[in-house]
Write a structure and sequence with these properties.
The complex is a heterotetramer of chains A (500), B (302), C (615) and D (122). Chain A is mainly α. Chain A has helices spanning 5-25, 29-55, 77-97, 106-128, 132-150, 158-187, 192-198, 204-222, 230-237, 240-265, 273-290, 296-316, 320-347, 367-380, 387-401, 405-431, 447-465, 468-482, 484-492, and strands spanning 58-61, 72-75. Chain A has a two-stranded antiparallel ribbon with strand order 1-2. The radius of gyration of chain A is 22 Å and the shape is globular. Chain A starts with a helix and ends in an 8-residue tail after the last helix. Chain B has 12 helices and 1 strand, in the order ααβαααααααααα. Chain C has a two-stranded antiparallel sheet. Chain C has a two-stranded antiparallel sheet with strand order 3-4. In chain C, strand 1 (52-58) and strand 2 form a beta hairpin. In chain C, helix 1 (2-20) packs antiparallel against helix 2 (26-47), helix 9 crosses helix 12 and helix 13 packs antiparallel against helix 14. The termini of chain C are far apart. The longest helix of chain D is centred in the last third of the chain and has 32 residues, at 78-109. Chain D has a single domain (3-114), classed as Helix Hairpins (Orthogonal Bundle). In chain D, helix 1 runs antiparallel to helix 2 and helix 2 packs antiparallel against helix 3 (78-109). Chain D has 3 helices and no strands. With 122 residues, chain D is mostly helical. The chains are: A mainly alpha (500), B mainly alpha (302), C mainly alpha (615), D mainly alpha (122). The interface between B and C is large, with 78 and 75 residues.
């Protein structure tokens, strides 16, 4: 082990503080140091993950305050897996954007990389913390850095997108805070395990209201309908890699927070109508509106929202198979969607509007990127033999075990829609003639960017042809999420409960 | 005595008979038509003279391979159809391919010729031939439907597709034209189109298409077409006789029955003007189709 | 068995090599492509024996690969056509751009079809099915002509079919806990009635799309005519047979087990009949050879579906035999069109005329396969049609006979149109430069035409493996009952002897050919088709009297009432309606931040209202 | 009902009232500035609510000082106060970002009316 979970949060914060100072001396450092930090975080979380796979869940108490008094970081098979994915994706995004817009001047680059780092740190924090208020703080960190990143480009409508995001974000923060207040007023504790242990002592009405406020508070990050109005704008206006980071990292954190709340905090077992309903509505609305988009990134954003809806549906089934399928979906989406965003932003590099019609015949000019984009599109629309197929299949089988015919039918119909709009883009990309009047002038992709794309594509192919390479880990994670008592015991084994 | 040579001999004899009878009937029809129209008309052996003349001609030009093979195709279908149709009831005379005969095979081998004809005349590049061919094919689609319905009705009723079995059935159980009348009516109405006399002579419409497919063909080509036409006519007549009139046990009976059948389209043709193509098709999909359905129902119910 | 794995490995490696090394050098690309096909073909025809397979597990699901006597029939079609049309494609496509993509996709399609036939479980079946779908999709849009319209239509229908199939597969998996086709068939009678009806219908939807059954066929004309002809030869010849393959399995092994399941068969048979009739009419209407052949393919598949849906031994024999025959002659015809288009630059009847002396070998292939298509003896098409009629009569489908007969008689119209339009008629100055297609393109056509001829005389050659496959499906052996090398019996025991008839045909034909051309090439001389007398006057050099415009117009006028409305229109209107609806849903996100805040509050209220039902 | 209850109810009532006022501002006011003010008012209300929870009548500051070891019973709950401090800081940060965004928006659109800032939609 090269460190403890707390480094995952401490190091980036420290670096975020130091980078401007070092940047005064050595300008290039603002690009490099975040990369080093993210690489370190990746290595750290990976090694931690391998460690806990052998030795079981690892709970770290901060500053010696034992749970439930102190804040503790829980690094379990589930959280470890998610943290590893997130840090890895963060590193990929950095690798991609290391020379991205190398014309961007020093100040902007500094802000960009610092906020990117904070985004990853906050998301990891959301995942590994064991304390709801701490989680709230991390959500706010993610939120603020996300607003800043969304508003990165000064020339465009990015400020508008960021402002919408901000309104929704702060409203949701208020809701989350209210929920936390209710829980605290009822149980007098903020520790998740503690709450989970004593949830049945809570007045049922307060419990439901608290749950509602939690859902609303986290729902904005998790992009559930109708709280996701900001998402397409933010994805569209933020720089391409940031879009990748949102869909690969932030949303996952939001989904995790919601699921942890439902499964562990309120210890609901069995199918959860609320998640299924919300997920289905989100799925349908998002995918159908994706069909009619003129802008590439906006289409990708809607598709990403729809995928998250599907993930919620899968979680909502509440069974082992369902949770497994949901985690599989999250993993695949975390790999595929960034690939789409990153390659897409190479394709539409020289345009600010990102219209789909502007990439007409681009494959003639930049074939490799186009092929990678097509690979991502085929994979996300669930065509075998790529990774998306297996997750979709596991979702369907999970639904079939529960006899949810309607869900199966809906998911398949939605998949047809997905295929249609992705193939429209592929057609434009490959089988139309490039003409200067409509298409943007191609931009030569950078070396590091191509490496990032190739890593993602390789992962897609690996999971697609050999799904067994990841299913084992996902299985452990699903067990970990479903087994609430183990979680409680693990966390509270250090100190005994306040409430005897 | 089922040797190969015997078969071939019988086949050739059959062909010669068919050729002679066919040409004679054609001549007679010309004579009768003339008389009805109050003309004198040529002698009935006129066609033999024409055939002889054409056969002895030497053609100086040709338009390519398909023009040679087209009439040959035509001849193949004519001869094969006459070979698979039992000419007389007992197989000792004319021992051809009768006992392997099959109505569906017959239907297909009969249309084989028109396609060959179409190809042959197609290469001559004469627009009239192509127009005539398309008309002919369209009309064929028209009359095949009631014709096939009649056949299907008969086949279903007697649970066989073999002409020989049908003949045996008629030996015992009377003629089919009485036992299944609707099929007979449908068949006869379809026959009007099959023989291509007016009003269904839209294929080789004289004075309109310059005799259609056969234009640009002279000498041996025309002879082949003419003789194949006569053989074909005989084959069709014999088929009708076998199907509906209980076959024939000797040549005299055969001639009588075939001539009786032959009168129907000819006399109908003399008094009626020519249809347009779609009119012809619609005609066949009117009453004949109706009788075909009746025949099917009749075959299924009784 | 290792041979199967070896075949797949060779395919994948060949695909990758063709794609990447193919960029370097055209010759290398062609060599790699043909080498892959040849190696796999050799392995298949020598190394594969039926009734052998392997098993493995993915995601805890047991899967298996192997080959059965039944799928062996189709595998023969696929491999044979792939080899021949591959040779054809190498020459035909030589002037096109990014060919490495084309050939890699070609190999991918062949591999996926072999995979479909090799897979003994539904999951790998579906995986290969989808690979086939998207790889063939890329071929459909390869030429870049109206990509969005045709391509999206194709992928949309394929996706609908495939996902209907996937739904059925998922149900099966959740009910039986296994995806092996064998287990599914064995346990099918355990399902509840609703499932017993739902699953076959879903599966048949999936297969019906690929085999262009009537309500689901609208993708076919565009797709067939839009992809390169050298690929369409396999697309229509082999790829559509995958639908037939699945349909046979479902209808024979699954639907048999349903009480009153024969209704499904009847409905499918009637749909097949209607498909045959309507597609034939539309084929007559077309002026573009590709479109015409596409519709004709739909019609022919209609016959095949009728055969397999009736399902009596003779009908099944007929259906499978016609499947093989259709694979042979239809791919030949598509190749012919490809050759004509390559040499003249157009595939439109109204433009090309009188090529017979320019491209005689192509014409020969076309003639043979047209005769086979029209079902005229002695070529193979007749055997299939004959058996189909006999079986229909034996199983009391009288109206169906009339329908089939109508369509196959009407087929003569477009058959003649095809031959006349391209090869006959007056020879044009415009096409005087046209040369015969190169040998690499002509030889595959002639080989296929030869097969069509051979199977006409010796149907037993292909009927033997079909018979074994049918025994695998549970039929009693039909040897000596329905067919021998040259005798065919029908249900009622009547026989048609092929050999003497064939001898007579040849004899008479040759005799009259000699009679007509005796001294022919000594005395008679060839004159151009301009040298004719039409109503007494000689046409000038520049004026073309060939009759091409409004071909078959009278017939079309007669059948106009049934052709008035097309299904395509209805689908289009439905699609437009849906698009409008979706355009509304996206407007939920009005760009106004305050509205989102309002949604926020409304959402809270809704949740509070429905909290009892939701939590 | 003793005064503690009254004070507690009063505090709750006030905070909820504040939240509603803020919500009203966010939903109806067209000016970006006012929307931000509304958000801040909501935050204020929530903070007040948070404080109110930890309230103990006549409680002392939660500090262990020698000589008053018995004070533990009379201490007010320290956690809400810590939470409030954090929440205030976060709210401050968010407001700062929001105002900077508003400046950008004004430069870009020359208006503060939220209804006119709808370039991104559908």
């Amino acid at each position: 082990m090269v460190g403890t979970p707390v480094f995952l949060i401490a190091i980036p914060l420290l670096a975020a503080f130091l980078i401007p100072l070092i940047g005064m001396i050595w300008k290039e450092s603002v690009r490099i140091i975040p990369g080093l930090v993210l690489a370190y975080m990746t290595v750290l979380s990976a090694s931690l993950y391998l460690f806990i796979l052998e030795n079981g869940t690892y709970v770290e108490t901060i500053a010696g305050w034992q749970a439930p008094w102190g804040i503790d970081l829980v690094f379990s098979p589930l959280t470890g897996l998610l943290a590893t994915i997130m840090t890895f994706m963060g590193f990929i995004v950095w690798l991609y954007s290391y020379r991205f817009k190398s014309n961007v001047e020093f100040e902007a680059a500094k802000k960009y990389f610092i906020f990117l780092m904070l985004l990853v740190a906050g998301s990891v924090g959301i995942v590994i913390t064991g304390d709801i208020f701490n989680q709230f703080v991390f959500i706010e960190i993610v939120g603020i850095s996300a607003y800043a990143l969304t508003a990165f480009y000064t020339g465009r409508n990015s400020a508008e997108a960021a402002f919408k995001y901000l309104i929704m974000g702060s409203l949701s923060a208020s809701a989350l805070l209210i929920a936390i207040i209710i829980v605290y007023a009822q149980l007098g504790t903020l520790n998740m395990a503690e709450i989970a242990a004593n949830i049945d002592q809570m007045n049922v009405h307060y419990r439901i209201i608290a749950m509602i406020f939690f859902i609303i508070g986290i729902g904005v990050e998790a992009e559930i309908f109708p709280l996701n109005g900001w998402a397409p704008d933010a994805y569209t206006e933020a720089p391409g890699p940031v879009g990748g980071a949102f869909s690969g990292i932030v949303v996952k954190a939001g989904i995790y927070a919601m699921v942890r709340m439902m499964f562990t905090l309120f210890d609901i077992s069995g199918p959860m109508k609320i998640l299924i309903v919300i997920g289905l509505v989100t799925l349908i609305v998002a995918e159908t509106s994706a069909l009619r988009q003129e802008k590439l990134k906006r289409m990708l954003a809607y598709s990403s929202i729809g995928q998250m809806g599907l993930v919620l549906v899968a979680f909502g089934m509440g069974t082992k198979a369902g949770v497994f399928a949901a985690l599989f979906l999250m993993l695949n989406h975390a790999i595929i969607k960034p690939l789409l965003f990153l390659s897409g932003s190479f394709l539409t590099f020289n345009t600010t509007e990102k219209y789909i019609s502007q990439i007409t015949g681009m494959a003639k000019k930049m074939p490799v990127v186009s092929v990678l984009f097509a690979l991502g599109a085929l994979a996300i629309s669930g065509l075998p033999p790529f990774s998306g197929f297996w997750s979709k299949l596991s979702v369907l089988t999970a639904a079939a075990d529960e006899n949810l015919m309607l869900i199966i039918a809906l998911v398949l119909i939605i998949s047809v829609i997905e295929i249609v709009y992705y193939f429209r883009v592929i057609n434009r990309l490959f089988f139309f003639e490039y003409d200067e009047s409509v298409s943007v002038k191609p931009h030569k992709p950078g070396f590091n960017g191509m490496i990032a794309l190739f890593i993602l594509a390789g992962l897609i192919l690996l999971i697609g042809f050999y799904p067994a390479s990841v299913t084992g880990y996902l299985d452990l994670a699903a067990d970990d999420l479903l087994n609430t008592h183990q979680y409680i015991d693990k966390v509270l084994q250090l100190g005994q409960s306040i409430i005897q | 005595m089922e040797s190969v040579g015997y078969h071939i001999l019988g086949g050739i004899v059959t062909i010669i008979v068919a050729f002679t009878v066919g040409l004679t009937y054609m001549g007679l029809s010309r004579k009768i038509t003339a008389r009805i129209q109050n003309r004198k008309g040529p002698p009935f052996y006129q066609n033999f003279i024409d055939a002889l003349k054409l056969a002895s001609k030497e053609s100086a030009i040709h338009h390519g391979f398909m023009q040679h093979s087209g009439p040959a195709f035509l001849m193949v279908s004519a001869i094969l159809s006459v070979l698979v149709i039992p000419v007389l009831n007992n197989g000792n005379w004319f021992p051809n391919l009768n006992f392997h005969g099959d109505l569906i095979f017959l239907i297909y081998i009969m249309v084989f010729g028109s396609l060959g004809m179409a190809l042959g005349s197609g290469q001559t590049g004469n627009p009239n031939s192509a127009i005539g061919v398309t008309r002919g094919l369209s009309q064929m689609v028209g009359f095949e439907i009631p014709w096939v319905m009649a056949l299907v009705a008969i086949m279903v009723k007697y649970q066989t597709t073999s002409l020989v079995d049908l003949l045996e059935v008629q030996q015992t159980g009377g003629w089919l034209m009485f036992s299944s009348p609707f099929a007979f009516i449908a068949g006869v109405l379809a026959m009007l189109g099959m023989f291509r006399y007016s009003p269904f002579d839209i294929v080789s419409a004289p004075t309109e298409l310059a005799s259609g497919p056969v234009s640009e063909n002279g000498g041996k080509y025309l002879f082949t077409m003419m003789s194949s036409g006569s053989i074909f006519a005989f084959a069709k007549l014999v088929l009708y006789v076998d199907l509906f009139l209980g076959g024939a046990s000797n040549l005299i009976e055969l001639l009588a029955k075939t001539f009786a059948i032959y009168m129907i389209p000819m006399l109908y043709g003399v008094v009626s003007p020519r249809y347009r193509t779609e009119q012809a098709i619609q005609y066949f999909w009117g009453w004949p189709l109706f009788f075909g359905f009746l025949a099917l129902v009749h075959a299924l119910v009784f | 068995m290792e041979t199967i794995l070896t075949i797949f490995i060779i395919f994948i490696a060949g695909t990758a090599a063709t794609y990447f090394l193919g960029k370097l050098n055209g010759v290398l690309r062609s060599i790699l492509f043909l080498a892959t096909l040849a190696a796999t073909g050799w392995l298949f025809f020598t190394g594969i024996t039926p009734e052998s397979g392997i098993e493995f597990r993915i995601l805890g699901i047991t899967m298996g690969w192997g080959i059965t006597p039944f799928s062996y029939i189709f595998a023969i079609i696929v491999m044979g056509l792939a080899l021949l049309s591959g040779i054809y494609a190498v020459k035909a496509m030589e002037d096109e751009k990014n060919l490495n993509f084309f050939f890699a996709n070609f190999l991918l399609t062949v591999m996926s079809m072999m995979g479909i036939l090799f897979s003994l479980d539904l999951i790998s079946f579906f995986i290969f099915w989808e690979i086939m779908t998207w790889s063939s999709y890329f071929m459909v849009v390869f030429t870049g002509k109206d990509v969005q319209k045709v391509g999206i239509k194709y992928i949309l229908f394929s996706a609908i079919g495939a996902y209907a199939m996937l739904m059925a597969i998922v149900f099966i998996y959740s009910f039986t806990g296994s995806v092996l086709i064998g287990d599914f068939i064995d346990n099918f009678h355990l399902f509840d009635t609703q499932m017993q009806w739902l699953i076959p219908i879903l599966l048949l939807t999936g297969f019906g799309v690929k085999s262009a059954l009537m309500p689901l066929h609208v993708w076919a004309p565009g797709a067939y005519s839009n992809s390169p002809m050298s690929y369409t030869a396999m697309f229509s010849g082999a790829l559509s047979k995958m639908g037939i393959y699945g349909m046979v399995i479902v209808l024979i092994l699954i639907v048999q087990q349903i009480p009153n399941g024969y209704w499904i068969k009847e409905v499918i048979a009637w749909m097949g009949g209607i498909t045959a009739a309507m597609a034939t009419l539309w084929a007559i209407k077309q002026d573009d050879a590709k479109k015409m052949l596409a519709y004709s393919s739909i019609g022919q598949l209609g016959y095949i579906i009728v055969g397999v849906a009736i399902g009596t031994p003779l009908a099944m024999l007929a259906g499978l035999f016609m499947a093989v025959m259709h694979g042979i002659f239809k791919s030949t015809l598509f190749m012919v069109v490809g050759a004509v288009e390559r040499q003249t630059g157009t595939s439109n009847f109204t433009e090309v005329t009188g090529l017979i002396r320019k491209m005689p070998w192509t014409f020969l292939a076309a003639l043979m396969s047209i005769i086979a298509l029209a079902g005229i003896p002695p070529l193979g098409g007749f055997i299939g049609k004959w058996m189909l009629y006999e079986s229909l009569m034996g199983s009391n489908h009288y109206l169906l006979i009339i329908m089939i007969f109508f369509s196959s008689t009407a087929a003569f119209l477009y058959c003649f149109k095809f031959l006349f339009g391209f090869f006959l008629g007056q020879e044009e100055k415009e096409w005087s430069h046209v040369k015969e297609a190169p040998a690499m393109m002509v030889i595959p056509m002639l080989i296929l035409a030869g097969f069509a001829f051979l199977l006409g005389i010796f149907p037993g050659l292909i009927l033997k493996p079909i018979n074994e496959g049918m025994q695998f499906l549970g039929y009693v052996s039909t040897t000596n009952r329905f067919w021998e090398m040259s005798i065919i019996f029908n249900d009622w025991g009547n026989a048609v002897v092929m050999m003497p008839i064939f001898y007579w045909i040849i004899g008479v034909f040759v005799f009259f050919l000699v009679f007509l051309t005796i001294k022919g090439y000594k005395t008679t001389r060839y004159v151009s088709t301009k040298d004719i007398s039409t109503s007494g006057e000689i046409p000038k050099e520049h004026e073309n009297l060939t009759f091409t415009m409004g071909f078959m117009q009278p017939f079309l006028r007669a059948v106009a009432p049934v052709m008035k409305r097309q299904i395509d229109k209805y689908y289009t209107s439905i699609g437009n309606g849906l698009e409008a609806l979706f355009d509304f849903t996206r407007r939920i996100n009005t760009g106004n931040g305050q509205t989102y805040a309002l949604y926020f509050v409304v959402f809270i209220i809704i949740l509070l209202l429905f909290k009892d039902s939701l939590f | 009902m003793d005064t503690a209850e009254l004070i507690r109810l009063g505090v709750y009532g006030t905070s909820i009232l504040l939240i509603l006022i803020g919500l009203y501002a966010v939903l109806t006011k067209k000016s970006l500035i006012k929307i931000i003010i509304g958000l801040s008012i909501i935050d204020g209300g929530i903070h007040l609510l948070l404080i109110g929870i930890g309230y103990v009548k006549g409680g002392t500051a939660p500090i262990f000082s020698p000589g008053s070891e018995d004070a533990v019973a009379r201490m007010v709950d320290p956690v809400p106060q810590a939470l409030v401090l954090t929440a205030i800081v976060i709210g401050f940060g968010v407001t700062a970002v929001a105002l900077s965004l508003i400046i950008r928006l004004y430069r870009h659109h020359n208006t503060l009316n939220i209804d006119e800032i709808k370039n991104l939609k559908w």
